[in-house]
Amino acid sequence: MIYVRSQKTAVIHYHEIALKGKNRAFFERALMTNIQKQTRDTGCRVKRIAGRLIAQYDPGNEEKLIEKLRHVFGVHHFKVGGETRADMESMKKAARELFENIKTKSFRVSATRSEKNYPFTSHDIEVKVGRVIDEELKIPVDLSNPETTLSIEVVEGKAYMSIRRIEGLGGLPVGVSGKVVCLLSNGFDSPIAALRMMKRGCEPILVHFHSYPNTTKDAIESVKKIAEIISNYAPNPPKLLLIPFAEIQNFIVSKIPSSLRVVMYRRWMLWIAEQIAIRVRARALVTGDSVGQVASQTLENIQAVSEIATLPILRPLAGHDKEEIIDLSKFYGTHEISKLPYDDCCSLFLRGSPKTNVSIAEIKKAEEPIRKELEELAEKAIINT
Ligand code: ATP
Ligand code: MG
What pairs with residue 153 in β-bridges? Predict the structure, then answer.
């Protein structure tokens, strides 16, 4: 193929960003920066032209680049291939070379052009280039269900040609919506909740509460691995804060009846998370709650827990079934770690079932006499993080 240089090209499309009116340039720049950071070790170069991003890379790095681009929120889809001059002869020659090297039962050409003064319509390109493949290489055209689609995008005097389109994650570039503090446990839900908010442009700060020495350090190791998987989807590795929760938990156990403990643990996790949010200028807290999933997640208990925080608490999985969440964990790659059984700090020291309908009045009444001590212990936990 008569590529300009010996480089290959990925044309990267975004979707939702294009709708953002005057913020568009800001969103595009954010996406470009994120792509540059996330694909850093492929050595590709990214530029912005006419409503898309172009990444130039060495052919040997193609699979690696594809893998990286698949992890960038804000990418709707991308096409890998090459670029050539946008005159008809060059495009035909490039098409011929592309199809000479593959086996396919049928094809179609799908062309777009962004310049008005370009001498051919998209349809002209499709017909003329298509004829070469059909007549010279004897590959039949199939407009409705082709095995291979040759995409040709004519932009600023170049034609970007590709027979490989890959779907991206969609959503918004991480960071454009601001920071959030994500409460991250070892389970299936909270990593997915964090990733879903990243998909909406949020930059996560990950906070995990551990009960060491009440539990082993295994839970900490596993949460670190989960954080590593989450980092694959972020331009900068998110901070993971490991908060020592054992002392607070022991204190709650000594003062609060078992039926109220889960709600109380959750309240103080949120209290600490909010203090951290204020310090790092995050605008919301994120949890993996799904309504009705367990005792702490009935609507009554969600209300009793949430009352302690003033920042919005985002619960992106509130309406998801466990099965849907597990499917998402397979999709994002957290499943294998989340499925391992670890002692959860919240299931410690519970006798009998937790109460499912704790009222705000009831929990505040129980908390009132020990609130000051709890705040001191919580501040201490933050300092010892
Ligand atoms: P997950 O699968 O996320 O652990 P779960 O089904 O086990 O959730 P809970 O244990 O009730 O549900 O936790 C509800 C939410 O509270 C979690 O999704 C998470 O956001 C937060 N949370 C629970 N335990 C911890 C912890 N040890 N550290 C940080 N956040 C936690
Ligand atoms: Mg859990």
Answer: 112, 160
**From atom 4 of ligand 1, which residue's Cα is the shortest distance away?**
187
Bridge partners of 53, per DSSP, are 12, 48
- At 318, list the tokens: 């509130």
Cα 117–chain centre separation? 39
- Give distance in angstroms: CA of 184 to centre of ligand 2: 8
- Indicate the burial class of 337 (C-beta count within 10 angstroms; 0-12, 13-18, 19 or more): buried
d(CA 231, CA 77): 21
The pLDDT value given to residue 268: 98
Distance (angstroms) between ligand 1 centre and the Cα of 209 equals: 9
Who surrounds ion ligand 2 at CB < 5 A?
Answer: 185, 187, 344
Query: What is the predicted pLDDT for the residue at 215?
Result: 86
Residue 240 burial by Cβ neighbours in a 10 Å radius (0-12, 13-18, 19+): buried
pTM: 0.94
> Which residue intervals of the chain are DSSP H helices?
24-38, 62-69, 88-100, 122-131, 137, 189-199, 218-231, 246-255, 258-280, 299-306, 322-332, 335-338, 360-367, 371-383
Q: Are 207 and 276 in contact (CB under 8 A)?
A: yes
Is residue 191 lining ligand 1, measured as CB closer than 6 Å?
Answer: no
How much is the average pLDDT of 128-154?
96
Best residue among 189, 192, 293 to mutate for probing ligand 1's pocket (most ligand atoms within 8 Å of CB) is 189
- C-alpha to C-alpha distance for 264 and 364, rounded to whole angstroms: 10
Confidence of residue 343 (pLDDT cuts 50, 70, 90): low
Ligand 2 center–CA 220 separation, angstroms:
13
Reported as a single tens digit per residue, the pLDDT across 61-112 is 999 999 999 999 999 999 999 999 999 999 999 999 999 989 999 999 999 9
Ligand nearest to the CA of 288: 1
- 203-218: pLDDT as tens digits: 999 999 999 998 888 9
Is the CB of 104 within 6 Å of ligand 1? no
Which residues lie below 8 Å from residue 100, measured CB to CB, with a gap of 6+? 137
Q: Closest ligand 1 atom to the C-alpha of 297?
A: 11
Give the per-residue pLDDT at 350. 62
Which protein residue has the closest C-alpha to ligand 1 atom 10?
Answer: 346
